[in-house]
């Protein structure tokens, strides 16, 4: 029994015997790579199986660690035992030049440093050399104005079967990013057939200076035939990096204001009327719908239409509709505004022309798109119930970029017809009272200030409930009370009137959070900052309410 015990003890000691020495070493599969290539680092610890791993954080100074796997092996050969642990790291260089994998320390052992030479990638050379996988990266311009669209294009070329292809996400400080397309096609290059994945992004720089576009990572796996019934499985992992790009962002031209700034390659105005006959009835509404289409702008960047003023008309604007469309030429923003127009007297009236100025990014100059004025003959109405008559079908849109001014002067009608039209207009006002807020009576100046304070309380309540859309409308109503002579039609205009750059930034965040909710970007709206700025602003009192009397808020309830 003792003999058996002694032999078992000896065998057990031999099995667990590991040499007391230990070492740590680093090796790479190659020391010469390009910026869009990867290399594999193997860190081996020879000694008793460790429970932890070396600190690899020092490597991340020059390289990104794409993956990290661990392998352990134990062997007994000719009475000698060996044990080692391997960590295999897939590294991506962060820049070109002479880089180094630093010395690592683990369990009292230290590895040697490894020098790596990273050359700049040459996409043309990749194609000419017939490499099986390579990437081309382009931008459509080297210089752009602030908020001007920049098209970033990546093309992944591969002549070998790949599966599970993906691209990493990326962020750019002070820039808005939207993916606009992803296309797949084939192309023959230097006698070799390539499959190509083309991905396009629209970028909008939000600050002046250099816009640095970081590298993105394409990851895929080679497809291998397992040999069993023709089934395919994952092969080697393939990683390619896109080329970094830099675009210079210029400021808005000095002679332009922020409220005039719409950088686009094309702006079109379209309009339609609910009645295109040219003859209206006093007191009966007609709807004018205008769509602004801007190539290279998001809908949130399109400035609101200028206000239309005419003493012969009552105007009831509806809330605008915003939509972004993805095209091969970038983002196509569309802003649609509808305006109910009620003639308040018989005779001839002119609905004024509409003009919008924008910056032509192709020719680097200001342009004006215009819808011409339209003349209507208005007849008197003797039937009150005609106010609720069914409106005719929407006419075909008129598409106009330029036009001429009309100089017709409305005809003077008889006193009796004017009186009848006025009575009907009052009835129409009663009919639409639910759509419009109660008008502020033109009395004493302090009333406007009191109403503004009431709006502030409403804004605070809406902010507390995170009702951002309703809060935006209330802010515009507040602005109309504070600036009765020139009520703002947008938050951007309100910030300009208040001369508050910080508030303008918050307003921009608010608009983007409401109108670009599907972009995948989180916009931080600091409601407390907005409310504080509104409270601290001291409105200028005025006793002239005459001009304000005929104006309606931008988004009536």
Structural class label: alpha+beta
Provide a count of the helices.
9
What's the alpha carbon Rg, rounded to whole Å?
35 Å
How many beta strands in the DSSP annotation?
31
Distance between the termini: 99 Å
Low-confidence stretches: 8-20, 383-417, 430-449, 541-557
Name the beta content range.
35-45%
Q: Average the pLDDT over all residues and give the rounded result.
A: 78
The helix fraction, in percent, is 10-25%
How many domains comprise the coordinates?
Answer: 4
Q: What kind of sheet is the major sheet?
A: 6 strands, antiparallel
The coarse silhouette is elongated
Q: How would you describe the overall organization of this protein?
A:
This protein has 557 residues and is of the alpha+beta class. The chain is built from 9 helices and 31 strands. Strands 21, 23, 24, 25, 26 and 31 form a 6-stranded antiparallel β-sheet that branches. Strands 1-3-5-4 form a 4-stranded antiparallel β-sheet. Helix 4 (446-464) packs antiparallel against helix 8 (527-536) and helix 6 (491-498) runs antiparallel to helix 7 (501-515). The longest helix is centred in the last third of the chain and has 19 residues, at 446-464. 28% of the residues are buried.
């Amino acid at each position: 029994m003792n003999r058996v015990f002694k032999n078992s003890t000896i065998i057990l000691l031999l099995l667990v015997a590991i040499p007391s020495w230990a070492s740590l070493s680093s090796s790479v599969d190659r020391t010469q790579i390009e910026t869009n290539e990867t290399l594999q680092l193997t860190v081996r610890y020879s000694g008793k199986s460790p429970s932890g791993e070396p600190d690899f954080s020092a490597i991340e100074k020059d390289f990104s660690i794409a993956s990290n796997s661990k392998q352990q092996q134990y062997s007994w050969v000719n009475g000698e035992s060996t044990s080692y642990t391997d960590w295999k790291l897939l590294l991506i260089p962060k820049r070109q030049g002479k880089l180094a994998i630093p010395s690592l320390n683990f369990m009292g052992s230290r590895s040697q440093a490894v020098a790596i030479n990273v050359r700049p990638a040459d996409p043309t050379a990749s194609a000419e050399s017939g490499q099986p996988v390579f990437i081309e990266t382009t931008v459509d311009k080297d210089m752009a104005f602030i908020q001007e669209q920049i098209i970033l294009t990546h093309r992944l070329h591969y002549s070998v079967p790949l599966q599970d292809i993906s691209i990493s996400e990326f962020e750019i400080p002070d820039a808005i990013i939207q993916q606009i397309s992803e296309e797949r096609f084939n192309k023959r290059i230097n006698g070799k057939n390539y499959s190509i994945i083309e991905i396009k992004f629209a970028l909008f720089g939000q600050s002046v200076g250099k816009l640095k576009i970081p590298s993105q990572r394409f990851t895929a796996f080679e497809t291998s035939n397992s040999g069993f019934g023709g089934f395919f499985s994952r092969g080697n992992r393939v990683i390619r990096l896109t080329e970094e790009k830099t675009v210079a962002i210029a400021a808005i031209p000095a002679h332009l204001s922020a409220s005039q700034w719409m950088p686009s390659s094309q702006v079109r105005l379209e309009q339609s009327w609910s009645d295109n006959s040219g003859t209206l009835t006093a007191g009966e509404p007609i709807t004018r719908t205008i769509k602004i289409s801007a190539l290279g702008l998001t809908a949130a960047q399109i400035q609101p239409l200028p206000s239309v003023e005419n003493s012969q008309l009552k105007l009831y604007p509806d809330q605008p509709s915003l939509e972004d469309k993805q095209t091969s030429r970038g983002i196509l923003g569309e802003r649609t505004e509808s305006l109910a127009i009620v003639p308040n007297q018989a005779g001839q009236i002119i609905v004024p022309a509409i003009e919008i100025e924008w910056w032509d990014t192709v020719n680097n100059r200001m342009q004006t798109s215009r819808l011409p004025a339209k003349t209507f003959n208005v007849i008197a109405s003797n039937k009150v119930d005609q106010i609720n008559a069914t409106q005719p079908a929407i006419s075909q849109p008129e598409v106009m970029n330029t036009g001429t001014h009309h100089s017709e002067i409305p005809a003077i009608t008889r006193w009796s017809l004017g009186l009848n039209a006025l009575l009907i207009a009052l009835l129409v006002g009663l009919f639409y009272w639910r759509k419009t807020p109660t008008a502020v009576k033109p009395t004493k100046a302090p009333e406007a200030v009191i109403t503004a304070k009431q709006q502030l309380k409403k804004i605070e309540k809406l902010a507390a409930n995170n009702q951002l859309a309703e809060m935006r409308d209330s802010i515009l109503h507040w602005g109309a009370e504070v600036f009765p002579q020139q009520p703002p039609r947008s938050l951007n205009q309100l910030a300009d009137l208040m001369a508050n750059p910080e508030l303008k930034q918050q307003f921009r965040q608010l608009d983007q959070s409401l109108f670009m909710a599907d972009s995948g970007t989180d916009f931080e709206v600091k409601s407390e900052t907005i409310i504080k700025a509104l409270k601290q602003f001291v409105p200028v009192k005025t006793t002239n309410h005459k001009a304000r009397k005929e104006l309606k808020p931008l988004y009536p309830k």
